[in-house]
Amino acid sequence: MVPEPGEFLSLLTAEEVAALRAAGHVRKWERGTTVIQEGDTSDWVIVLLEGRVKVSSHTDSGTEVVLAVRGPGGILGELSAIDGSPRSATVTALEPVAGLVVRDFATFLEGHGRIAVLLMQYVSFRLRDSDRKRIEYGAYDTTGRVATRLLELAERYGEQTSAGVRVALPLSQDELAGWTGSSREAVSKALRMLRDRGLIETGRRRVIIHDIEGLRQRAR
C-alpha cells in the first residue's frame, strides 16, 4: 500500500505507522458498502489502506452532497473520535476498500504527541480545502466546477497514456453532480461541452484528459 501524497499516513514515520497498526486491526468493505454512517457515535477511526471512498451528507430534501473523495492513507472519523460528537457525514466505498480500524483513538493520541500534532495539521489542511470548494461554488459556473474536480482527480489518480491523462473515475454522474453542487443534467451538459472542445474524452467511469492546460484555463 502506498499512501497518497499529503494524506495522513504519508506524514508518519515508519515507526509511527507500525505503532498505529499495532493499535488497530484491518477490515475490508465491498464496493457500495457504508463504512461510516452519519449520525452514529463511536470512538474509532479508519485509516484507508486500499481503495477509495466518498464522504457525503444529505440535505433535508434528500439530495446527496458529496463532500470529498478519499484514497489510501486518508483518515476517516477523526473528529467524532476526538470530541465524541455524532458522525457528521456518511462514508461509502466507491470500490473494494481495506482500512485500519483504531478504537479509542483519543487515548492513542495521548501517547503519541507528534502524531497528534500532525493530525491537527492534516485536519487544518482539509478545512482550508473545504473553504476553497465553498468559494468555488459561488465563483465558478458548473463547467468550471466540473473541470476543477476532474483536475483534482487527475492529479491524485491520473495515469499518463499516449492519449492523455487517464482517470479511472470512481464517481457516477449523479455523484459528480453532488460533488460540484450541480444537477445531473448540468453536469452532463458540462461534460459534453468539455468533450466538444476536445479537452476530455469520457467513457464508463473513466475520463481521458487530452489537454490539461486547456482544462485548467476552463476551470479558472
From TrEMBL:
Cellular-component GO terms for this entry: cytosol
Domain HTH crp-type stretches: 140-213
Give an example GO molecular function.
DNA binding
SUPFAM superfamilies given in the database record:
cAMP-binding domain-like, Winged helix' DNA-binding domain
For this entry, the protein name equals cAMP-binding domain of CRP or a regulatory subunit of cAMP-dependent protein kinases
The record's PROSITE patterns line, in alphabetical order, gives: CNMP_BINDING_3 (PS50042), HTH_CRP_2 (PS51063)
Q: Per UniProt, which keywords does this protein have?
A: DNA-binding, Kinase, Transcription, Transcription regulation, Transferase
One Pfam assignment: HTH_Crp_2
Species of origin reads Nonomuraea maritima
The residues covered by the Cyclic nucleotide-binding domain are: 8-97
